[in-house]
Design a protein that fits this description.
Layout: H1 2-21, E1 31-40, E2 57-64, E3 69-81, E4 84-87, E5 90-93, E6 95-105, E7 111-114, E8 132-136, E9 141-150, H2 156-159, E10 174-180, E11 187-188, E12 191-197, E13 200-207, E14 212-214, E15 223-230, E16 233-241, H3 242-249, E17 254-258, E18 262-268, E19 273-279, E20 283-288, E21 294-299, E22 303-308, E23 314-322, E24 327-332, E25 338-343, E26 352-355, E27 376-379, E28 397-399, H4 408-425, E29 431-433, H5 447-460, E30 463-465
Helix pairs in contact: 4-5
Amino acid sequence: MKKIFRILGILVLSLLWQHCSDDQAPARPGEGNVRFALRTKSATTGRTATSLPEGASLYVSIRRVSGDEVYSLEPVRLLKLGDEYISEPLALPGGNYELTDFLVADGDGNVVYATPKEGSALASWVDDPLPQAFAVSDDGIAQVDVQVLPTDAQLPEQFGYVTFKIDVVPFPYFQLAVFRADSTAPVFTPAYVYLLLEGDTVYHRHLPAGNQPIRFPGNPEATYTLVIQSNALATYQRTFVLQDLVAELNGAPLQVVLQPALTFTALYRFDFFQFWTESMPGSSFTIDWGDGTVGEYTADNGYIEFHHIYPGSGDYHVSVSGDLDVLWRLGLVFGFGASDQIFLNALPNLRSLGTGSGYDFGADSLDLSHNPKLEVLSLFYSNVRYFDISNNPQIIGLELIGSDDISTALLDQVIADLHQHAFELTLEQGYVNLEGGESSIIGPPSSEAIELLRDLKNNLGWNVLPDPN
């Protein structure tokens, strides 16, 4: 707790210096994907089958290791690659899971292959009967190999199932094409897509780029909310009556163009979440907080703090759109939360960035390649350990206070880039603060890097802490 108060005190002074000197949607962040590869066998001969029926689909049930069900007989498309079958990616937050049902049905809903469950008569015919454990990493794709047996001449109970009945969605309700705005023409982009019905998520997919069918057992007369999220792009929401949307589209895909945005994951664990910006007076912003709340804000005097209270602890995908080309300073997040998956692509004129929380969670990397005008980078007790300033030649202020996870190798490269840029552009009177939280200095830098810091201090008048002399 003392550490948190110390961070807050440092940050208040830093922010004052910088300011004076110049319908509930599910949270997507931190999600990965799982993809299933089928291995078909014969229960009598053990020989591998070569093909599945035309129009076959996969149906899976997945639960967390805690026992909470995530998917229940969820339909998943199958693709044939050579002699193998793989499923489309299925979105899952990072974590540990168990596959509890695995059925392959033909186009009429008749189950033709299944994976036996532990304790069933056919369990010994596969290497790993259900439940089958697997892990999903954030923003990764886990591939799970699953063996299935044909169901012909076999009863469901021999596989450990009560029934093989599957309700088949006969056709896609509509097609969806998601684009990102580009300087010349919109470009197809992958995205996370949700459909909400009365606050419940009834459809959840990570769709690849291109025209994609939206299949779900929907009620044509019901009102749904479509939510589309993608990194570095503004969140899209639309509410519609299903049959009205289908009639409106008349077979054509629903085309959605996502605009550039500042996006990040709000890691909400405390009383409220906050971040701040400084921009041109009168600039306006739209913030989708990732929980169904959308706010409109105007920076009357240029400086504005954004506060939000979430309905509960979680990771929320936040998108900020609007006058981002005049957003100069950004603070994420000091003392009241943490941020992950920070995408700064839409901030070409960003001059100052600060982030840190003092907690053992938050972003471990930053991509600064889209911010060539960056002058100040402040990482206070941050978990960031990967960043590159080679494309940020105007940096004249670097604070890495308490960021003890930064390695000597990375720190040496950062100091070398900082030194090169400063002497090439004659950047005088800058500052570097490398004070550690658990030691006197982070890294620590090598003797060669210390010599570069000494050169900055003695020949360009930089203030360097700890003092390299």
